[in-house]
Amino acid sequence: MRHLQLAVRLPNFILALIVMLQCQGSPSLAVENSDFRLKEYLGRTWRNECVTFPLDAAQVRHVQAGHALLGADGEPVPYQRCAVATGDGIAVMTDLDPFTTREFRFADTPATARKPLVEETKERVVLANQFTGIELRKALADGQGPIVRIRLNSGAWVGDSTLTCEKPLTAYTVEVTARGPVYSEAVCRAAFGENTGWALRVRVNANEPVVLVEETFNVAENATRWTLDLGRNFAPDTLLYRNGRGGYQNTTWRIAAGEVFVLEPWLRWWERERQGHCFSLYKSAGGAEQPPAGAEPPDTLSIGAREAGVWVDPAIPGNQRAPSQLFVTKNGETLTMALPLKRGARKWMISTLNTQACLAGLDGKASAPGVLLPNKYLIKHGHFPLDAVKNYVLTWPGDQSSYPRLFIPKEKLPEFRKNLPNPERFTARVADYRQGKYGQYALDGIVTPTAAYFVSGDEALGRNLAENTLDQLQSGVNLYLNQEVQPLGVAPHVQYQIATSIAIADAGLAYEKLAPELRERILAQLAFLGYVFDSPAFWSTARGFNANPNMTTAVYSYKLMVACLIPAHPQAKAWASDAITELRSQLYGWSDENGGWLEAPHYAAAAFDQLIASLVMAYNAGLDDSLYSPRMKKIAEWFGKISTPPDSRLGGFRHLPPIGNSYLQEPTGIFGTMASLWKERDPEFAAQMQWMFEQQRSWPNACIGGGYPGMIGANGLFRGSNVPP
Fold first, then answer.
1. 154 phi and psi, to 5 degrees?
2. In a 10 Å sphere around its CB, with 0-12 CB exposed, 13-18 middle and 19+ buried, how is residue 134 labelled?
3. How much is the pLDDT for 695?
4. What residues are paired with 238 via a beta bridge?
5. Residue 326, CB half-sphere, CA atoms under 13 Å: how many?
6. How many angstroms separate the CA atoms of 405 and 502, rounded?
7. What is the mean pLDDT of each run of 10 residues along the chain (725 residues)?
């Protein structure tokens, strides 16, 4: 028997959580005659996920015959026919545990009949399951919107919608496009004249307290909008949200007149507290913002913005594009969210939840960190649904053993060790690093476990680095899959865990006795991070999903790290090219001919530190030689020229000037890195850099005030060189 991977039929498609299509069996699968297979690499517990698979001709015949689909335990699995990108497909609901495999196969027995998820009358269409529901109008009277009401977790029906337009409707229809048993779906289509339109697609998955909403619109009139009434028959008085301006704490707020919340798919930097991807509404018990112990918990209605990249199409001029911020306001007793209709699209979701479950993470406090239940559903359906992640390429052929790669390529290690001054600084710590867990800041500073390994090649240290790689990289993946620390895409400059996890993987993969299955897991998780950094939901300057310049440097530096670490990955060249193009643009666009940088000295040093590290990686990979461009020298000289005279308060040492958001008496260690990198190319310039390095106390980091991920784990190998000042 033989199996074909989807990559055979669909080039450049898979191996995320690997999906395999059966032709005639294979010894490579644990279960014979498997039609579909999912393999988990990301350490996540997936529950009740709607996953689609393309069908081959034989599988289409099974579906047409109404045959059952069985799981590995032989139990029938509900499925329904659907369209996928390549044609015919099926959708199934499935669970998947960390690092496990799940398989499905068609049987020749009939499938069990399942209850549909749709009810339909002459006037209405209702999509519902046991947890939620939505009712749609089949015809619109003046001012009416498509949504009649939403069913809450308790069974109560609330809400309404209105439509405001400059031109009258010329057409309106509702079509039920799926009836279950996996999901039900309906599409409302409206027209306002020739070449204008709005489509509202709603979906309810089986056993999920969620309504998925997708809109596309092409409406010229600026005043056209529809409004979702969130208060009718509900009257919520409390808002639950994650602070959108620093800290990202979960908190509650007593709803008052005026602006209540700003919903947006990508959280802008430091604009409002009540702003972000998700908000929730509930009616407090007895006037308290949280229900007292033993009280009947009220319903919570939550709205979340999905798939940020869909909301802003850079090809549409800004003045024609629907805004990506939706305002929730209270006017008298009315609580509404306005949804303008111009050109573009958006995806969002409605969750109907138990309030006590939503507030569990607060534990009676006014605010608390972490991610609460409404945000967990947003991550599941809006950021990382299994159906999307399974299409990531997480296994691939090619050279997967030639490590390290990033700052000191494997082939250059012998010469590097030979020329390194004072290697005993690093070898003296080898015994300390051979066992135990490393923290996320273990690679910060001069002497680090990775630096000690690159210098010594000690096998026991290499083994411990490999073990720590598994933990550190899992923490990096969890940073985005769980979002306990901050929402997706926010503040990349403080995501030091990411730089640690990627840099330690460079050393962990260099351990030649690493078990193949663990090497596969590490590579898969690195690839996942590559997809995250490449996603417009994480960062997109073209869409305005960006903040301070140095944050953009951080994102593209992380992206280049992954690309250089897994160069055989099918997307690595594209990731590297995109990152290098952006970083070169910063090099020549953010500095002038004299080397002056566009940010304050502190931010400039943070950005330049990562720019140096990125260009080192690109140079080592043979991708770009901007590292040794004259502009790099000019920028480094600029830092020297703006530094203070000797400061008697600091023993006569120099430091960066306290301009803008810079620390007082702040030194920088980038001069030491530049001295080491240029000592062969331009000894005179390297000597100047070494002198400035020593003038600034031979500072070990790029700046002060936190960890800086530039040459993370290898900083000490590129500072304190033997260049005479």
1. -75, -15
2. buried
3. 96
4. 254, 282
5. 26
6. 11
7. 31 38 30 78 98 96 96 92 94 97 95 90 97 98 96 96 91 96 97 92 98 95 90 96 92 97 96 96 71 66 98 96 97 96 97 96 90 98 98 94 95 94 94 94 91 97 97 97 95 90 97 96 98 98 96 97 97 98 98 96 96 98 98 98 95 95 94 95 96 94 86 89 76
Q: Are 343 and 217 in contact (CB under 8 A)?
A: yes
d(CA 96, CA 369): 27
Which H helix or E strand runs over 602?
helix 601-620
Phi-psi region of 582 (alpha: psi -120 to 50; beta: other; left: phi over 0): alpha
Query: What is the side-by-side order of every strand in the sheet holding 225-229?
Result: 160-164, 225-229, 334-340, 326-331, 258-263, 275-276
Can you tell me which residue has the tokens 């010329």? 170
Single-letter code of the amino acid located at 403: Y
* Per-residue b or e along 597-613, where b marks 16 or more CB atoms closer than 10 Å to that residue's CB: bebbbbbbbbbbbbbbb
> What pLDDT does 28 receive?
26
Q: Is 518 helix (H, G, I), strand (E, B) or coil?
A: helix
Residue 502 tokens read as 């990627």
Q: Which pLDDT value is given to residue 139? A: 97
Helix (H, G, I), strand (E, B) or coil at 674: helix
**CB neighbours of 106 closer than 8 A, spacing ≥ 6?**
35, 59, 62, 67, 68, 69, 70
pTM here? Answer: 0.94
Give me the DSSP letters along 532-567: HHHSTTT-BGGGTB--SHHHHHHHHHHHHHHHHHST
Number of H helices, E strands in the chain: 19, 29
Q: What is the DSSP letter of 113?
A: P
